[in-house]
Amino acid sequence: LELVEFGGGLVQAGGSLRLTCAASGRTINPYAMAWFRQAPGEEREFIAAVSRSGRATDYADSVKGRFTISRDNAKSTVFLQMNSLKPEETAAYYCAARATTVDSATYSGAVNYPYWGQGTQVTVSS
Predict the structure, then answer these.
(1) Is 41 helix (H, G, I), strand (E, B) or coil?
(2) Which residues make beta-bridge pairs with 48?
(3) Which of 38, 64, 113, 116 is 20–30 Å from 3 (CA)?
(4) What's residue 106's pLDDT?
């Protein structure tokens, strides 16, 4: 499973961006999908996860109410809509996947995900 993220860029504080993760090599139906971010010198941070069907989601407290994760299994894509962005959210954003037999989104640790994209940079200016 190969993952490619795009949609990052430069945005002013309070603005919005929509990130896309495109999967290739196989369908994403059997995978829980997630987004993480990592700023220079920081650990990789969980942002959001979505279950295989898309019915279940989980978010970090810091992004609840502002970010929305969704997926389109027919197109093997995952999205992260980010609103009201803050300068401290400047980071490289990564898409991740893990195979799962249950329809759950409760996988918040980076160690749970064996498949990763190369990341897309998001810069939020103040």
Answers:
(1) coil
(2) 35, 59
(3) 64
(4) 87
